[in-house]
């Protein structure tokens, strides 16, 4: 393959693989959700540069092959003559189908033995990893029913060979399995609740979510299973205040915009009306309809202690420093964004399809009242970092009502079965920080007195892309959490319009009272 063809092959694959992992010598070297890359075709060579907070490597690409969602590269390390292999995998679980099937079958037997030993008074009515796509169940989770007389518990477990994402998603499918068991066993036994089994050391996010479920609707129990030593430990989920999370300080937007005024003028001369997002005191991002295409940041000047500004550009994990020699390429990217990323652009173009949630978010941020007229558009933050022990979360939109009550807006542009519990996860973090007065102390909502009431939760998705399981999941959320589901028109890129609303019981009661007051009753 010629260097030009290699360059294009690698570029095309990586542009569609934002969550891929990079393997070298069989080990994971980079995760592109937390890493950056650049591709250079200079000097008649295809050079791939990958870097993260931990590593920085450059490889010359000699050959490329795409097979089974994996880009296999023959590469050469600098200073070495013998080629080595580099693999870039879209699928994070790289096991073969037969290996997955064997691990899940072995876990099913191990979970059965664990249940028989730790719950001897119960009978295992069933245990299976069979597919049931109609009810959204795949082979990742072992599902069963523990029965004792007229009482029973739904059982769901996930083995240690599955990804952390599968473990974090276990509670969603556990709730759905509980509901299926209750429907199938109606009139025979009382299915009291759910017993959920996850691998040792992986329960943090599931525990936080389970703590905010309705304890009157079911008995929720979480266990960590050490498969090697067959040890079972029950995890305490009763304490809702025990949330492992931290909040970053809000940046001074005005000072950052003044600091990067020259870079802002330069970029907006090329793409007027692009949005400027302040990421920190030392970095800002430029976005076009939600898609980030450039950043300006402070760096150290070589050979001195002076700070200099540099602009980097690229979409996804790609990043290049803007220099005289590549200004033409940057202009091409800007022109392509302008021509493609608009409501009536070519729907099959990668730049039109990329990050639809960020596009939707940009529309909501410009006028959050389209979600609810009582929200305050003047007091709003997007992509708020809130970190937990389990992941690095970004809250889509954090704002307040006009009377100062915090509100979280979680957005999905496509069907997502996990939307209710992801929203619940962000709600619990915001509530934790709010209860400790940290938003004001960390520089958010400056000059605004925040209500002491618990935050509101808004879930927003296109009306025809709401997962059928959403209603079931919402029924099991704690009644103390006031949520509102907002279904919007499918043509939201042309403008966000509400099609329907569904409220939690408490929120519906409050909304009715507000309407009566507004009508003068």
Supply the key terms.
TATA-Binding Protein, single chain, 7-stranded mixed sheet, 25 strands, alpha+beta, 33% strand, Protein Yojf, Chain: A, Trna Endonuclease, Chain: A, domain 1, 521 residues, 14 helices
CATH class of the largest domain: Alpha Beta
Count of distinct strands = 25
Number of domains: 4
CATH topology of the largest domain: Trna Endonuclease, Chain: A, domain 1
H/I helix tally: 14
Q: Which CATH-level-2 architecture of the largest domain?
A: 3-Layer(aba) Sandwich
Determine the structural class based on helices, strands and strand pairing: alpha+beta
Helix-residue proportion: 25-40%
Biggest beta sheet attributes: 7 strands, antiparallel
Shape: globular
Strand content: 25-35%
Could you describe the 3D structure shown?
The protein has 521 residues and is an alpha+beta fold. It has four domains: 3-89, Protein Yojf, Chain: A, CATH 2.70.180; 97-242, 3-Layer(aba) Sandwich (Trna Endonuclease, Chain: A, domain 1); 254-353, TATA-Binding Protein, CATH 3.30.310; 356-519, Trna Endonuclease, Chain: A, domain 1. 29% of the residues lie in helices and 33% in strands. The protein is built from 14 helices and 25 strands. The strands form four sheets. A seven-stranded antiparallel β-sheet has the order 2-1-7-6-5-4-3, with helices on one face. A seven-stranded mixed β-sheet has the order 14-20-21-22-23-24-25, sandwiched between helices. It has a six-stranded mixed β-sheet with strand order 8-9-10-11-12-13, with helices on both faces. A hairpin with a 2-residue loop joins β16 (283-288) and β17. The protein is globular. The protein starts with a helix and ends with a helix.
């Amino acid at each position: 393959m010629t260097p030009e063809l290699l360059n294009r092959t690698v570029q095309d694959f990586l542009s569609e693989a934002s969550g891929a992992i990079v393997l070298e010598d069989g080990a994971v070297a980079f995760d592109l959700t937390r890493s950056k890359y650049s591709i250079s075709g200079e000097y008649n060579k295809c050079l791939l540069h990958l870097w993260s907070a931990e590593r920085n490597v450059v490889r010359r690409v000699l050959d490329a092959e795409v097979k089974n969602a994996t880009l296999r590269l023959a590469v050469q390390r600098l200073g070495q003559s013998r080629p080595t292999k580099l693999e870039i995998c879209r699928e994070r679980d790289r096991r073969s189908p037969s290996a997955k099937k064997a691990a899940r079958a072995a876990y099913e037997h191990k979970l059965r033995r664990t249940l028989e030993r730790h719950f001897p008074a119960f009978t295992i009515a069933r245990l299976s990893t069979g597919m049931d796509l109609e009810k959204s169940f795949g082979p990742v989770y072992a599902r069963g029913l523990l029965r004792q007389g007229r009482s029973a518990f739904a059982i769901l477990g996930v083995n240690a060979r599955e990804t952390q994402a599968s473990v974090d998603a276990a509670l969603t499918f556990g709730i759905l399995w509980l509901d299926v068991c209750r429907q199938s066993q109606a009139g025979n036994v009382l299915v009291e609740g759910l017993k959920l089994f996850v691998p040792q050391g992986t329960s943090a996010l599931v525990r936080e979510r389970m703590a905010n479920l309705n304890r009157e609707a079911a008995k929720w129990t979480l266990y960590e299973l050490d498969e090697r030593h067959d040890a079972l430990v029950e995890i305490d989920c009763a304490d809702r205040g025990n949330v492992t999370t931290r909040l970053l300080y809000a940046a001074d937007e005005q000072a950052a915009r003044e600091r990067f005024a020259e870079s802002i003028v330069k970029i907006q001369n090329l793409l007027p009306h692009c949005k400027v997002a302040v990421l920190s005191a030392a970095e800002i991002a430029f976005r076009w309809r939600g898609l980030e295409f450039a950043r300006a940041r402070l760096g150290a000047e070589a050979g001195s202690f002076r700070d200099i500004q540099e602009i980097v550009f690229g979409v996804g994990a790609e990043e290049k420093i803007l220099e005289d020699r590549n200004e033409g390429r940057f202009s091409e990217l800007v022109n392509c964004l302008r021509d493609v990323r608009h409501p009536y652009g070519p729907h099959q173009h990668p730049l039109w399809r990329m990050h639809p949630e960020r596009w939707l978010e940009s529309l909501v941020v410009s006028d959050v009242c389209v979600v609810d007229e009582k929200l305050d558009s003047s007091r709003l933050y997007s992509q708020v970092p809130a970190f937990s022990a389990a992941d690095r979360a970004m809250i889509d939109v954090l704002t307040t009502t006009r009377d100062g009550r915090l509100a979280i807006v979680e957005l999905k542009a496509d069907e997502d079965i996990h939307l209710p519990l992801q929203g619940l996860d962000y709600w619990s973090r915001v509530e934790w920080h709010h209860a400790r007065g940290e938003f004001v102390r960390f520089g958010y909502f400056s000059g605004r007195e925040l209500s002491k009431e618990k935050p509101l939760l808004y879930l927003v998705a296109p009306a025809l892309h709401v997962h059928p399981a959403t209603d079931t999941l919402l029924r099991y959320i704690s009644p103390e959490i006031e949520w509102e589901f907002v279904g919007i028109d499918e043509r939201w890129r042309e403008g966000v319009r509400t099609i329907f609303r569904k409220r939690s019981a408490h929120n519906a009661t409050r909304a009715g009272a507000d309407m009566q007051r507004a009508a003068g009753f």
